[in-house]
Amino acid sequence: MVTVKVLQVVGFKNSGKTTLITEFLDLAKNNGKTISTIKHHGHGGSLDLPPVETDSMQFFDHGAQSSLAYGEGVVQIHMQSNTGNLDDLIELSCQTKPDIVLIEGFKKAAFDKVVLVRSQQDWDTLQELDNIVLVIVHEGVKLKGINTLERSRLDDIYKWFAKWMAGETSESI
Fold first, then answer.
1. Are 9 and 102 in contact, with CB atoms under 8 Å apart?
2. Do 57 and 74 form a contact (C-beta atoms < 8 A)?
3. Which end of the chain has the lower number of beta carbons within 10 A, N or C?
4. pTM of the model
5. Whole-number mean pLDDT of the chain?
6. Rounded to whole angstroms, how far apart are CA atoms 20 and 149?
7. Are 123 and 117 in contact (CB under 8 A)?
8. Cα 155 to the chain's mean position, in Å?
9. pLDDT tens digit string along 129-163?
10. How far apart, in Å, are the Cα atoms of 152 and each of 8, 45, 98, 147, 148?
């Protein structure tokens, strides 16, 4: 069972998910929080891995279930997994004992979600997701009957995130 605060940032390609997570990372760090991130690689195909001639990749390519390399305070890990189960990935990321786990993607998971919307068409699909706590729209996008923040209103978005980190926002849309 996950006991760390988890926030997903979801939206379609080029909606600004990575940029927003980077901004949230900076804010959380400036507030003394430790953060882990998880990204769903939704571009098709496998992830780019280090060169095959590295020792850790040789181990991995020869069948190691996992291969870890350590140097200068950084651990690099490659693991075989057929499930892609988000709870398992969160548990793995919690080995670093973060205060917060920020997730890019995994739209169908049941954690608090910030949804980035570029158009009404995006919203028509994304509004069906569970646990939406904030909708951020690109400039000029108006959604009827829903409270949103425009992406250009960074101060308001940052204030929202600060409240979320403090546990002051628990409403779902």
1. yes
2. no
3. N
4. 0.85
5. 87
6. 13
7. yes
8. 21
9. 999 999 999 999 999 889 999 999 999 999 999 99
10. 20, 33, 29, 15, 12
Q: Per residue, what are the HEC states of 88-154?
A: HHHHHHHHHCCCEEEEECCCCCCCEEEEEECCHHHHHHHCCCCCEEEEEECCCCCCCCCCCEECCCH
pLDDT at residue number 171: 59
Sheet-wide strand order for 100-104: 35-39, 100-104, 5-11, 112-117, 132-137, 149-150
Residue 117 CA to residue 80 CA, distance in Å, equals 34
Q: How far apart are CA 104 and CA 109, in angstroms?
A: 11
CB 8 within 8 A of CB 103: yes
Letter string b/e over residues 21-60, b meaning 16 or more CB atoms within 10 A of that residue's CB: beebeebbeeeeeebbbbbbeeeeeeeeeeeeeeebbeeb
Q: Would you state the pLDDT for residue 105?
A: 87
